[in-house]
Specification:
By secondary structure, this protein is mostly helical. The chain contains 14 helices and no strands.
Length: 272
């Protein structure tokens, strides 16, 4: 029995180190002076410094790319919640033919490899005159985050008893007023979970942001950090400091609401 416990904790620690190793290495690198960045073998910082964090904000348009990411992620989240909640309500509670087919189509959209859709989306974005704007990213992210939104919310909506909807109809509510007055207030945890997941997806996305943006006016955090390297040097310390800075809010958000995120992902998985 003791051997099983020892093996369990050994494998657990090994898994944690494997998952957290790259992030911990970035964390230590962000505090290393320049002359220690390329030392062999790699060492922990002997004289920790905050110079890279100061350089990130003074020598790069870091506040601007953070603002761009925040606006794009927030707008994407709001659009997904507004459109996705209405679609999920229709699928979960209204009499519509082919619900399974509709859900399957939504699910298949999320499986498209991004690289396969970049070229046609780029042509559409350029035709609409949206290249290098926030809307190019907002509309694209909304498209790809919508299946996740509908999938999670429809599971939450299905768990709301139909008797409540029938009672609301007896009281004179239409389908829309039932959605506003009954469904939404009872689905707070699901909506909250969906908002966090969509926000994190939009915050971290790289490929579309790299393709559809061209200047600092619309460039988001992943692309902004990727363009830190200059013509003759790669500022590893600045890149590490920037990565740590933009990751901390997401980690705190996930840790604070991990229970609700798990509830949202597993809603509807078990029927009593």
């Amino acid at each position: 029995m003791k051997i099983k416990i020892i093996v369990f904790y050994f494998l657990l620690i090994l898994s944690l180190l494997y998952c957290l190793g790259p992030y911990l290495w970035q964390f230590f690198t962000s505090f290393k002076p320049d002359h220690e960045l390329t030392s062999i073998p790699p060492i922990f910082p002997k004289t920790p410094t905050f110079s890279h964090y100061r350089a990130v904000f003074k020598e790069h348009p870091f506040f601007r790319i953070i603002l761009n990411s925040f606006i794009v992620a927030t707008a994407t989240t709001l659009l997904c919640l507004i459109i996705g909640s209405l679609a999920s309500y229709s699928i979960a509670k209204l009499k519509i033919r082919g619900k399974i087919i509709i859900l399957s189509i939504f699910l298949s959209i999320s499986m498209f490899p991004p690289i396969a859709t970049v070229s046609p989306l780029y042509i559409i974005i350029r035709f609409l005159g949206l290249r290098d704007t926030w809307w190019a990213l907002i509309l694209t992210y909304t498209t790809f985050a919508m299946p996740l939104t509908i999938w999670i919310l429809s599971n939450f909506f299905k768990e709301i008893p139909d008797d409540l909807l029938k009672a609301a109809k007896v009281d004179g509510c239409t389908s829309f007023t039932t959605f506003i007055k009954i469904i939404l207030p009872l689905s707070g945890p699901g909506i909250f979970t969906t908002a966090i997941l969509v926000f994190i997806f939009s915050w971290n996305e790289f490929l579309y942001a790299l393709t559809f943006t061209n200047t600092e006016s619309s460039r988001t955090i992943p692309v902004g950090i990727a363009l830190f390297p200059g013509l003759h040097e790669i500022p590893w310390g600045d890149i590490a400091a920037a990565s740590i800075t933009v990751t901390i809010p997401l980690i705190m958000l996930t840790l604070l609401f991990q229970k609700r995120i798990v509830e949202g992902l597993t809603a509807g998985a078990i029927k009593g």
